Amino acid sequence: MRTLVDNIGCIFGIERQGRLRLCGEEMGSMETLEDAWLLVEDGRISAFGSASEGMPEDVDRRVDAGGGMLFPSFCDSHTHLVYAGSREQEFLDKINGLSYEEIARRGGGILNSADRLHATSEDELYATAMERVREIAAMGTGCVEIKSGYGLSTEDELKMLRVIRRIRESVPLEVRATFLGAHAVARAYRGRQGEYVDLV
Predict the structure, then answer these.
(1) Which CATH code is given to the segment(s) 2-71?
(2) What is the pTM of this model?
(3) Which GO terms describe its biological process (predicted)?
């Protein structure tokens, strides 16, 4: 299927030189094209250009961008969107100079997150994670990686992974799951880290 998006006020992030990636200072600039069109064939961008230079006519569908802007979505490659409770205070503690070990001794850290996650139902985890997913999608994220890692037990890690699967099945974003076993050593395995690694 050939879809033409026309009447685009400006396309951001185009690449005319065929570069696959930008590094260093190159990342600080973004090429644009005004008064543009974009052709999508079978779900992939196949061409773009200036409307003043003509555009494809043989298309199955036309979408009028209404003079709006078109830009690539963001890919968030490292998230922990499935969790229970908040660790905002720990962030402030770190800013104020506390080490991760000091925060953990005060009852914070991953073990605290694991306790909260264990006490939270799968449905509640899904509902709160979906709020976060909707927020990042509204800000332009089109692909997101979501880690487990706050479960620290087989049961709770699987609970997190099921929530991530439900998210993937519920949203139009590209969602990738990462199993982050042994994010920390579970309390039940203190002093027996080798056994915990074997479990993972």
Answers:
(1) 2.30.40.10
(2) 0.80
(3) L-histidine catabolic process to glutamate and formamide
